[in-house]
Amino acid sequence: MNGMLIYITGFSGSGKTTIGKALQSKIPNSILLDGDEIRKSLNIDLGYSKPHKIENIRRNNELIKLLYSQGFTVIACFMSSIKDERDKVFTTCEYNVKVQLITPVEVCKARDVKGLYSKNLENFSGVSFPYEGFGTPDIAIDTSIESLNTSVNKVYTKYREALIKNT
Fold first, then answer.
1. Rounded to an integer, what distance in angstroms lies between the CA atom of residue 114 and that of residue 103?
2. What's the CA angle centered on 93, arms 80 and 45, to 5 degrees?
3. Gap between the Cα atoms of 163 and 125, Å rounded
4. Distances (CA, A) of 133 to 54, 64, 78, 119
5. pLDDT per residue over 106-115, tens digit each?
6. C-alpha 105 chain-centroid distance
7. How far is it, in rounded angstroms, from Cα 15 to Cα 113?
8. Rounded distance between C-alpha atoms, residue 98 and residue 128, angstroms
9. pTM metric for this prediction
10. What DSSP element (H or E) covers 24?
11. Exposure of 154 by Cβ count < 10 A (0-12 exposed, 13-18 middle, 19+ buried)?
12. Catalytic residue among 12, 14, 30, 80
């Protein structure tokens, strides 16, 4: 049995994990992977240089593929700012929904939930390091305009459509 991948990407503070957690409560047999949590555990030995970002994405992709192959719906909430590396997961996880949060960086800076924007970090994706989103996502959501409920419902609807299409 194949799983399903819902990949949510966007700037820090755009709402990836908030949407992911709400989705997880609606989708049975789902597992939420949060970039911040994985950085504190599996990827604690990595910094934020480009080679470390590439390795971070590679490890995230391997974890996604492992869970996907076991039939789980994986809700991956990662910034994963290097498109070529991030997109490698989709060759294995063919049943997927790509969600791009297009919330303007200015809005994310104003939210600065984790205090990251105020630290002027080196290699901070979207600020001092390039951020490459999906070329053509299945869904693009601006969380500065869309409510949480509307955002979650859009992703959930696309997820249900993908399930029907792939059965």
1. 16
2. 40
3. 32
4. 15, 19, 11, 23
5. 888 787 776 6
6. 16
7. 10
8. 25
9. 0.92
10. helix 16-24
11. middle
12. 80
